[in-house]
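Researcher: Let's walk through a ligand-bound prediction step by step. First, I give you the protein sequence. Second, the SMILES string for adenosine-5'-triphosphate. Third, you return the three-dimensional complex as structure tokens. Ready?
Model: Ready.
Researcher: Here are steps one and two:
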Amino acid sequence: MPRVLVVDDETGVRESLRMLLKDECEVVTADSADAGLRAMAELPMDLVLLDLVMPGKSGLTFLEELSEQAGTPPVVVLTATKTVTAAVAAMKLGAADYVTKPYEIDALRIKVRQLLQHRALEREVVRLTDELDQRTRIGDLIGRSEAMRDVFRSIERLARSPATVLIQGESGTGKELAARALHDLSPRASGPFVPVNCAAIPDTLMESELFGHERGAFTDARDRRIGKFEAAAGGTLFLDEIGELAPGPQAKLLRALQERVIERVGGSQTIEVDARILAATNRDLEREVQQGRFREDLYYRIHVVPLLLPPLRERREDVKLLAERFLKKAHERDGRGPARISRDAQLALERHHWPGNVRELENVIERAVTLCDSEVLQQEDLPEALARGVRTEALRENLQSGQLSLENTVASFEQELLREALERHNWNQTRAADALGITRRLLKIKMDKHSLTK
Ligand SMILES: Nc1ncnc2c1ncn2[C@@H]1O[C@H](COP(=O)(O)OP(=O)(O)OP(=O)(O)O)[C@@H](O)[C@H]1O
Ligand SMILES: [Mg+2]
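Model: Step three, the predicted complex:
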């Protein structure tokens, strides 16, 4: 129920207003301007009914002091007919309206109702705007970091535009999910979303895959076939791993994007392109261009708007949210497994470098769920590499807090590095030594020093 403050020195006025409004709202009364200001400091009000002439601080001074605060409720001034000029002064100080005394009961009730409705709408707008700012997902992408919220805002904006978007980011950062979100939020959402994995199709078949072919176009072309460009008509064509495209198909693709028409292989009819183009790559395409592996003109065609998905290690705030989501997903699917993540395990997850980004995190959680048979996922359920990160971090902390000397810390680090190399190479000493850039003899000496054995 909305809350209304009545500020008037006359008990009669306060009580009659309380009776009048008690069905519409909660009424709080104050017998002076100061008492009114105190009441407002204690409780949020949705509307104030204010008498102008009161002993002590006047209604106008009350308004003045209020106008210095932010987010104050609307004020309706109650005034005797004689003092309409004062009412005008009150309006100038920000009062929403005024009512002359003696007031008409129905008119006042309607006025209060309207102002309260307006106030509720304003509140709703603020709440919805906040919610948009606080959103932690778009499509299937989730994240709460500032970096991901930037991505969400870009996706929302870009979805409405027909521009070609190049989605860049390391492997496993969610490029495909971003492409789907761009399609699903676009005016083409009811049309098809057609992904093409440029890395998975042999060069010789690429052209026919993209543009289709006529019957008899080549030996295996027994029937006419529609290509991905045509299949995506009215929708979105997603050229995934575009950095892997060979020079021949690159040239054909450039032409299709430039002229917005295609021809099926072995055909002569030109077909208009009616698909929005999205592309993705985990390569540094600009460098590929510099090194002559990717056509510069094609690069500029697809690089109209770039969308960069940041690596997971640069947005560690997202790790917990993602890990919990993956845990919940596994739990719902299997009907078993841990429901929570221990503090230690969470720290280990947050400290890891995540070279494989969100995909790696998803795999780590999946694996942990199958290993863990208690309610809470523990650090022991995580791969050795993650626990190691915590151990080296602990060493660093011990050094900084003076619990360990530099010499001991370095020795422990060395031990960790040796163990890691040996484990990675299945305790093959020659290969581990190679990886560490030392001789096998030196490795052996160091293994003895640290008493490292399988
Ligand atoms: N922000 C995210 N929220 C939820 N799941 C995510 C997110 N990012 C990635 N994933 C999940 O991680 C996996 C990899 O995502 P996706 O296939 O979109 O990555 P990618 O960038 O296309 O990787 P690649 O370059 O290796 O193809 C998927 O299982 C996806 O569901
Ligand atoms: Mg991908």
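Researcher: And what stands out?
Model: The domain at 3-130 is CATH 3.40.50.2300 (Rossmann fold). The longest strand covers residues 75-80.
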